[in-house]
Structures are given as C-alpha cells and as structure tokens.
Amino acid sequence: MGYTHYWRQYSGFNTDKWDDLIHHSLHLQDAIYPEIQLADVEMSDFAICFNGTKPNNHETFVLERVMPPPNLDYKDHFFSFCKTAQKPYDLMVMCVLLVANKLEPDVITYATDGEKSDWQPAIILVKEVCSLDVSFNPKN
C-alpha cells in the first residue's frame, strides 16, 4: 500500500478538545512553514484537512470532529488512513495524530507503517510547540 498512517475513530471529539486540537494544529503549521508548506488546508469546527504542496503532495489527510458512519467492516468505529509516501507534509500528519490521541485517547488511536524513529521529529515538534508530552504509542 505504500507508506501510510492509519487511525480509528470511536466517537466524535469533545468540542473543547477539538478546539484545542485546532489551536495546536495551527501553531504546528506555523512552526513548519516555510520549510514544509501545506495545500488545501481546512482547520475548522468540522474537520482538519491538508496535503503537501506540489510536487510534495500525495493523499489528503482528513480528520473529522464528528465521527463519520462506521465502515462496513468495522461496526463500532470509523477507520481511515492517509498515504503520505514520506513526503514532507508527513510530519504534520504525524503531529496531528499525536496531538489528537493525547487530547482524546478514547476517541482516536493510530497505527503506522513507520518505525518509532520516523516519529521522533514529530514528537519533538509537538513537545516544543504545543508543550504536550506525547510518545509513540500506535495501536492496531
């Protein structure tokens, strides 16, 4: 399938936690710019969406505040993924997943094709920019 991050969403995000996630995501976006530029960015009451800029784009990352209907194969949660091909915007995808899981661990879990070492730059960035103590904790 290629280098991909996966997540399972078990419910909608608490409104206050979602607002915190948007706040942190905007600060993270500012921290990585201009080295990493994002395209098609939406950070709203409804969703966080972005991709890399051409030629460093791949699949658009989409995380919704309200849990979409569960997939046919999964009755109790929504399963999604984003193939990044390890392009530069992959750092932002990992940061958002780390922050979302830290803020709402019962709402979202993540998994990855990557190794712990691949996530170290995201862990460091989240700690520095958001002052959140996050760690690599994927769940299948």
How would you explain this protein's 3D organization?
The longest helix has 18 residues, at 15-32. Strand 3 (47-52) and strand 4 (61-64) form a beta hairpin. The strands form two sheets. The chain has a three-stranded antiparallel β-sheet, with helices on one face. Strands 2-3-4 form a three-stranded antiparallel β-sheet, covered by helices on one side. It has one domain. It has helices at residues 15-32, 90-103, 116-130, and strands at residues 4-9, 38-43, 47-52, 61-64, 78-83, 108-112. The protein has 140 residues and is of the alpha+beta class. Helices cover 34% and strands 24% of the residues.
Q: Outline of this structure?
A:
The chain is an alpha+beta fold and 140 residues long. It has helices spanning 15-32, 90-103, 116-130, and strands spanning 4-9, 38-43, 47-52, 61-64, 78-83, 108-112. A three-stranded antiparallel β-sheet has the order 5-1-6, covered by helices on one side. Strands 2-3-4 form a three-stranded antiparallel β-sheet, with helices on one face.
